[in-house]
Automatic annotation (TrEMBL):
Organism listed in the record: uncultured Rubrobacteraceae bacterium
SUPFAM superfamilies: PP2C-like
UniProt cross-references to PROSITE patterns, sorted A to Z: PPM_2
Domain PPM-type phosphatase: 27-220
Source species, domain of life: Bacteria
Matches recorded under CDD domains: PP2Cc
Protein name, UniProt field: Protein serine/threonine phosphatase PrpC, regulation of stationary phase
Molecular function GO labels: protein serine/threonine phosphatase activity
Length: 220
């Protein structure tokens, strides 16, 4: 039997092995710290939650205080999501917990202004097969690799992507735009509405969850 595979990038150095064995899903995670900052602000969840069927990548917002704390709060909220709960609810809960952590410090303290992106994936068994649900806020992405094609499952919540969708700039200009790291949505900020996507998972599918540390470094 061919398994469905999920790859994620986050704070841990490496995580591998079967996740959600009863669903036929294997999960793998890998992260490398970049050269711009001393700390790796990414966090990831590989096969956590109810039945080990939850996966997530959260990228703490660079240039903000305690981005690594915000990303950890996000994946912890997703890890505790019950089977009957929705990913959108978990994302909103994570956003609330980040605001609570911010308020726990005096203005200008270590946690003031922290934020994070998040992209999350959950599998569930249905009468006809295996359903997959994706939720994301910010510019961390999900891709589905099927039949030799890499299919994007998310759209960046970013200033540059809005220009791209509006036809103001093209993809080449977007790749080098000086404001390409400006986000329109993120956890811990004013707008944390998650976008949702659903698809039927098939044997042999591979799903990739990643931060901009991957897709800005390598082409599709």
């Amino acid at each position: 039997m061919r398994h469905l595979e999920v790859a994620a990038g986050g704070r841990q150095t490496a995580v591998s092995g079967r996740a959600a064995a009863s669903l036929g899903v294997e999960g793998f995670g890998l992260s490398r710290g970049g050269t711009a900052r001393e700390r790796n602000e990414d966090s990831m969840l590989v096969g956590g939650g109810a039945g080990g069927a939850h996966f997530a990548v959260a990228d703490g917002m660079g240039g903000h205080a305690a981005g690594e704390v915000a990303s950890r709060i996000a994946v912890e909220a997703l890890a505790t999501l019950p089977a009957a709960g929705s990913l959108a609810t978990a994302v909103r809960m994570a956003n609330g917990r980040i605001f609570e952590a911010q308020d726990g410090k005096k203005e200008g303290g270590d946690l003031s202004g922290m934020g994070t992106t998040v992209v999350a994936l959950r599998f569930s068994r249905t009468e006809t097969g295996l359903a997959a649900e994706v939720a994301h806020v910010g510019d961390s992405r999900a891709y589905l690799f099927r039949d030799g094609l890499l299919l994007p499952l998310t759209e960046d919540h970013s200033f540059v992507n809005a220009l791209l969708k509006g036809g103001i700039i093209d993809r080449e200009e977007a790749s080098r735009h000086p404001r390409r790291n400006i986000l329109n949505r993120a956890l811990g900020t004013g707008d944390a509405r998650p976008d949702l996507a659903h698809f039927e998972a098939l044997p042999g599918d591979r799903v990739l969850l990643c931060s901009d540390g991957l897709y800005e470094a390598v082409s599709e």
